[in-house]
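Form 7-S
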Amino acid sequence: EFRIESEQDEIAASGYINGANLAWGDYALERFATRFDLPASGAGTASLEMHSNEHGSMSASIDGRFVDERWLGNLLSLTVTREPPGEWQLPEPAGFSVSGSELALQQACLGTLPSRGTACIAARYDFAGPLEFETTISDLPVATLPSYLPEGAQLLGDLDLSASGNYSAKRLNATTSLSIDGLGLVASYEGEDVTAMFEQASVTAEVIDNRLVGDFEVRLENSTDHVTGEIQVDDLFDYRSTLRGQGSLELHDLSLLSFFAPEIANPQGQIFGRIEASGSLAAPDISGEIGLRDGSADIRRAGISVADVGLLLRQSKAGELSLQGS
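Output:
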C-alpha cells in the first residue's frame, strides 16, 4: 500500500511495501519490507528490511528533506548479517545527498561484532563526470572471512585494505593496497599441532588510464620461503589486451602442505618454481615449472612413508606439459 500526492512541482509519498518468498535467478528472498513517509516539505523517513536464508539479512533507515531541488539526508542505521563474517553495524550516521545531477555519500563505516574490524566508504558520482571513491578496511580478522581450509585449520591475522580513485569516460585511475598483519596458520590433526607464521603478506596495484601494474609478496618468518609475483595488463576492460606477468616460489618449510592435505604428516623437502604469463586476458599463455626435490612425507591413515621424491612439472608453451620424477 502506498500513496503519492503531487501539487505543482512538489511530490509527497508515504506507505509501505511488503513481500515474501521472492526470487529472481538463483537469488531467493524470504522476507522484504519497506516503509516510507516522504512529505513535500519537512523531514521524511524511510526504512528497509530484507532477509534471505542463504545470503543473510539487511536492515537500514534514512531521514532527510528536500532543499533547493536536492535531497539531503542521513543514513541513520545499517545492519548487515551474514555467516561468515557475522554482523556488521553502522556505528554513527553518515550524510548523503541526491539531486538530478549528482549522488554523494560522506564516509560511512561498518563495524563487525564482536571484533574491532571496520570497513568504510565515501563516494561521489557526477552524472556528467567522474565517479570518485575511497574505501578502507582496517583490523579485520581474517578468521571472520570465508575459508576453504580443512576442518581443524584456522587463519590468524588482521587485514588492512585501502583503495581510492575515479572512473570517467570509460577510464579508471586507482590505487589499492592490501596487507595482513600477523598472518598465520594453525591446525591440529590427530593430536599433532602445526603452525606457520608469515613475516609479510601484501598486494599493491595501480591503475592509470585502465592500465594495471600490480605485485604481491608472501614471505614466511624465516625470510627465505616466499611466493612473489608481478602482473601488467594494458587495458583491464579490453579482453584482447596484452597480459604480462611473472612469479617465483621457494619453500623449504613444507609444513604448509599439512594445512591443505591433512593426511600428509612430516613433509620435508624443497618446493621451487617460476611462472611467466603472456598473451591476452582472453587467451593467456602460461609457461614455467614447479618442482619438488628431496621430498619425503608420512601418509597418516595409510601408515606408509615416502622418501627421496623428486618431481618437475614443466610447461614450455601452451599444450606442451611434461612431468619428470623419481
